[in-house]
Amino acid sequence: MTTCRTAVISSLTLLLFCAPSLATTQDASSQTAKPTFRSAVDLVSVAAVVRDKRGRFARNLRKEDFVVEEGGVRRQLLEFRADDNAPVRLALLFDVSGSMRLGDRLEAARQASRHVLGALRLSAGTDEAAVFSFDMNLQSLQPFTADAGAIENALEHVAPYGQTSLYDAIAQTAKHLGDARPGDAHRRAVVVFTDGLDTSSLLTPEQVSAIASEIDVPVYVMTVVSIGEHEQAVSMPDSPLRNLAQWTGGDLFVTSAPAHESVAARQIVDELRHQYVLAFNASPKDGWHSLDVKTRDRDLTVRARRGYAAGNKGS
């Protein structure tokens, strides 16, 4: 089986060379690291999930209901789309590092992925999924398909092996989702199944969030832990992996039982189906631009990516 690490890492290196602020993030990540998102075009699009106080999706909102502020300055929205019941394309990314041998973590990850697949509409042919695994390298076990049997066969070939390049693998998998066909309405995301350990990545969480957000791909992480580890994992709201997910507009879920996996799977797929997509002109100024997306109704909560980087386009 071939791997795609070398080719993808080369393109990632080019991206980081074009955005010097990202290249220096690794040295500063332990201090005041900021996630950096890079827009490849002049129009910046942001997918937003909006919920009310009871956690229900807020429907029927209009462009006028949203406020997008960039560095505290309100931006004019040029395009607006309400994705209600959109088709979904997921890249399922499995951690097969040696630590996944402990207990039944790998089997728990497989079961968690089956909950996600159960929330998709594979039989209708509208949704698609692909299966990837990683240790030091990324492996494609099944290209994107609506064939549930082919996906299940790929899951059976997921096996633990060596060290973990978690962050690198997330970036590479996001790249696989980046080649959307014109007019493709699928909402795309990477769903990672892991115990959360990274031992050998070349990229930092901040750099990975930039790469994923460049192509508007949220990252959802389902950490597989034992029941005894659950409380401690939940009590770490500012972990690098959680920050990575939330910076891209995704989220992290701690799972130690089938009930946790089922709830997380439904939330991931439901969020992707019900999104508002907002677009505005990118800033002419190079560098980091923080974003705050909200609604005029203060009782509603918005989740969206936190910013983007402008400049150096086409270089």
What gyration radius follows from the Cα positions, in whole Å? 19 Å
Strand order, main sheet: write it out: 7-6-5-8-9-10
Which range does the strand content fall in? 25-35%
Per CATH, the superfamily of the largest domain is: von Willebrand factor, type A domain
The pLDDT mean sits at 79
Write the CATH architecture name of the largest domain.
Answer: 3-Layer(aba) Sandwich
Q: What is the tally of helical segments?
A: 10
What structural class results from the helix and strand content? Answer: alpha/beta
Distance between the termini: 34 Å
Number of strands: 14
Q: How would you characterize the largest beta sheet? A: 6 strands, mixed
- The third-level CATH topology of the largest domain is Rossmann fold
Oligomerization status of the protein chains: single chain
Please summarize what this structure is.
31% of the residues lie in helices and 28% in strands. It contains ten helices and 14 strands.
What does this 3D model show about the protein?
The chain is α/β, with parallel strands linked by helices and 315 residues long. It has 2 domains: 109 residues, no CATH class; 187 residues, Rossmann fold (3-Layer(aba) Sandwich). The protein contains 10 helices and 14 strands. The protein has a 6-stranded mixed sheet with strand order 7-6-5-8-9-10, with helices on both faces. The longest helix has 16 residues. The two termini are 34 Å apart. The N terminus is likely disordered.
Topology diagram in text:
Layout: H1 5-18, H2 20-23, H3 25-28, E1 43-51, E2 66-70, E3 73-74, E4 79-84, E5 88-95, H4 105-119, E6 128-134, E7 138-145, H5 148-156, H6 166-176, E8 187-194, H7 205-214, E9 219-224, H8 227-234, H9 240-247, E10 251-255, H10 258-273, E11 274-281, E12 287-295, E13 301-303, E14 307-310
Parallel strand pairs: 5-6, 5-8, 8-9, 9-10
Antiparallel strand pairs: 1-11, 1-13, 2-3, 2-12, 4-11, 6-7, 12-14
Helix pairs in contact: 1-6, 4-10, 6-7, 7-9
